[in-house]
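Ticket #4471: structure output looks truncated?

Reporter: J.K.
Steps to reproduce: submitted the chain below (368 residues) through the standard prediction queue, then opened the result file.
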Amino acid sequence: MRMRSIVRDDRFDLTIAETGHTATPVVVHPRMSIPLSILDLAPVAPGQTVRESFAASVALAQQAEASGYRRVWYAEHHNMASIASSATSVLIAHIASQTSTIRLGSGGVMLPNHSPLAIAEQFGTLETLHPGRIDLGLGRAPGSDQATFRAMRRDPSSSERFPQDVVELQAFLAGESRVAGVQAVPGAGTNVPLYILGSSLFGAKLAAALGLPYAFASHFAPGDLIDAVSAYRREFQPSTQLGEPYVLAAVNAVVADDADEADAQFATMKRQRLMMLLRQSGQIDPTREFGDDELDHLLRTPVGQHVQTMTTYTAVGTPGDAREYMEQFARTAQADELIVAHAASSTEARLRSVALLADAMQLAPAAA
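Returned output as attached by the reporter:
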């Protein structure tokens, strides 16, 4: 859903939701201040090398740090030619060495792919090298297709152990191992903060039960956002790490100096996501190319509608447009923090989007 302002005064904004059907008035009440963070998928654009993708991720983190974003997270994906963040902890280490204050972490590590001990050691190492800057977001999805699932030697029942593995991992990081005679070295006593990632009520209820922050993947799976956040807040139990519920909601953004340019970048993003889905599903020859008109036609097919659903929560437009959208989305999602996937396809446009949104939201860089 996109928002455009129609009335503004000192007390409130009146906007209308542009759904392609009847315009529905929405009252947006006084300006709010909310922390912004970034989800960087380390995209590999057509014609780009993985090394260039990593350089772009460094530049993005540096821009985010200079602009006042709170954290940058990287997601574990495997066997995807367009995403380079498969070795998540290694990428975090590289980018941490090129920045100085911004928090960095996983959004997330797919814990069923790993042993809790190995992740405790990896992130304990990161926290030891970069104290006070490391987050550990955890998910239970495979982050891959079935063939990759087998190649990773995953136990088919590993996802069912996710709650127990989270508790075991947390104990390793606290120096209170639940495995007799085994400690995480490095890791024990680092207390790297954990976050539960999810797109359903399962993750919401687990985060609530464990008293951990909850990050909802509304940038690509928006369906259960409201119900999941409500369940999390309702069922939250305080813990050593967290005394009150804390929600991070993910949202896409394509921000440009000109609204027409933002619209063009958004259209390109949807076409690229459609091609990724078609290739991953085996519905087309991986080498086949399509023109823009063909892809726009395919976006009206069922698989194209899936792309439209994935991008339900996307701020598109000028900095003013984006600020209005973010404020309204934060209220809708009951979010304490927004984690933004800047979705422009080129590095230059993505960096510009990062800077423009930060200025619009009046972010302040952290002191060195």
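Triage note (M.O.): checked the attachment and the full token line is present. The two ends are 37 Å apart (CA to CA).
Status: closed, working as intended.
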